[in-house]
């Protein structure tokens, strides 16, 4: 699944356009490598999202779910 789509479906970021913007500003790493919005996300990947200068969110991908909804979206990742 594409990174921007995963971020939106998992509700880590509310909109896909915002996810694209964050990726283009080089604020997301997958397994310690810079990631584009089109980068494929796989189970067990570690995402690091730079929220601001001092704050980062680090999550591990547990599941890829194309049909995620509000109730089960948090099953897709685990905060590290």
**Helix proportion:** 10-25%
- By CATH, the superfamily comes out as RNA-binding S4 domain
H/E order of the elements?
Answer: HHEEEEE
Overall geometry: globular
CATH architectural name: Roll
* Strand order, largest beta sheet: 2-1-3-4-5
Distance between the termini: 21 Å
CATH fold call: Structural Genomics Hypothetical 15.5 Kd Protein In mrcA-pckA Intergenic Region, Chain A
**Poorly predicted ranges (pLDDT <50, ≥5 residues)?**
none
* CATH class label: Alpha Beta
User: What count of structural domains?
Assistant: 1
Strand content: 15-25%
Largest sheet: 5 strands, antiparallel
Tally of individual helices: 2
Radius of gyration: 11 Å
Structural class: alpha+beta
The averaged pLDDT comes out at 92
Task: Write down how many β-strands occur, each being a DSSP E stretch of 2 or more residues.
Answer: 5
Protein described:
The chain is an alpha+beta fold and 80 residues long. The chain has a single domain (3-79), classed as RNA-binding S4 domain (Structural Genomics Hypothetical 15.5 Kd Protein In mrcA-pckA Intergenic Region, Chain A). It is 20% helix and 24% strand. The protein is built from two helices and five strands, in the order ααβββββ. The chain has helices spanning 3-9, 16-24; strands at 28-30, 33-34, 46-50, 56-61, 77-79. It has a five-stranded antiparallel β-sheet with strand order 2-1-3-4-5, with no helix packed on it. Helix 1 (3-9) crosses helix 2. The two termini are 21 Å apart. The model has no long low-confidence stretch (mean pLDDT 92).
């Amino acid at each position: 699944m594409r990174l921007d789509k995963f971020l939106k479906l998992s509700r880590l970021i509310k909109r896909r356009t915002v996810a694209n913007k964050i990726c283009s500003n080089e604020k997301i790493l997958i397994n310690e490598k810079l990631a584009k919005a089109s980068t494929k996300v796989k189970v067990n990947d570690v995402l690091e999202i730079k929220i601001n200068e001092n704050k980062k969110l680090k999550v591990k991908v547990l599941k890829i779910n194309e049909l995620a909804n509000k109730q089960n979206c948090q099953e897709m990742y685990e905060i590290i």
